Amino acid sequence: MSASEVPLADRLASIDDRIATAARQAGRPAEDITRIAVTKFHPAALVDDLYGLGVRDVGENRVQEVLEKVAEVGDLQDLRWHFVGQLQTNKARAVRRVVSVIHSLDRAKLADALDVEGEAPLDVLIQVNLTDDPGRGGVAPENLSALAEHAAGCAGLRVRGVMAVAPLDEEPAAAFERLAGHAQTVRRVFPDATWISAGMTGDFEAAVHAGATHLRIGTAITGPRPVRG
Ligand SMILES: *Cc1c(COP(=O)(O)O)cnc(C)c1O
């Protein structure tokens, strides 16, 4: 059987086993770790299937796709949508309305666009760029403090911590160690911002060892993504 032929329930269980093992090895309670199933490019029906298996946190990275999928899936009790992709300011409010957490706050203008008064504050993570390539998304570490300070002035936002994607050309463990330092920078402004969103299919165990509280796992759970234009 190829990986994509293994039933969804088995893939999910095997990932949860690996998370539990990594947590034990790191001396951390597995309950401190939220596993987000990244369902991008897959049909809404997959979210229903995952929900039936007990998944309550799903992740998407494209605006149009998350808006369509949320509408299609409809109200499922306790299901939380996490937005993990780059976000344009003119789409910010639409996404804010349908998701529980935005992992990709990376600039002051986006903070302002997401800062809607008169509604419950939105949980956000500040995305930090761990590479030297500005195109990879996330705020550069040297601008992190200033962005956190700016977000502190946005009553409609609740900054919970940091998010990052490991660079392609570096050991993820080393990159995630840096991220733990960036998390401390944010905690100087928001003492209770304890979340660290890091770790994907290829590196989630390293992320657990480095203190990640939120893992964003796609293909290892869902199987290969369908090609989509
Ligand atoms: C697609 C995606 C993931 C999941 O990636 P996999 O390698 O399939 O686990 C995680 N984080 C972000 C930001 C993504 O875009």
What is the gist of this entry?
The chain has 229 residues and is α/β, with parallel strands linked by helices.
Written overview of the protein:
With 229 residues, the protein is of the alpha/beta class. It has a single domain, classed as TIM Barrel (Alpha-Beta Barrel). It is 39% helix and 17% strand. The chain contains 9 helices and 8 strands. α6 links the parallel β5 and β6. The mean pLDDT is 96. Pyridoxal-5'-phosphate binds next to β8 and α9.
Q: What is the first-to-last residue Cα distance? A: 28 Å
**Biggest sheet architecture:** 8 strands, parallel
CATH topology (fold) name: TIM Barrel
Succession of helices and strands: HEHEHEHEHEHEHEHEH
Mean pLDDT: 96
Count every beta strand, where a strand is a DSSP E run of 2 or more residues.
8
Radius of gyration: 17 Å
Q: What is the secondary structure topology, with strand pairs?
A:
Blueprint: H1 8-26, E1 34-38, H2 44-52, E2 57-60, H3 63-73, E3 80-83, H4 92-98, E4 101-105, H5 108-114, E5 122-127, H6 144-152, E6 157-163, H7 172-189, E7 195-197, H8 204-209, E8 214-217, H9 219-222
Parallel strand pairs: 1-2, 1-8, 2-3, 3-4, 4-5, 5-6, 6-7
Helix pairs in contact: 2-3, 6-7
The structure holds pyridoxal-5'-phosphate (PLP).
The site of pyridoxal-5'-phosphate has 14 residues, from strand 8 and helix 9.
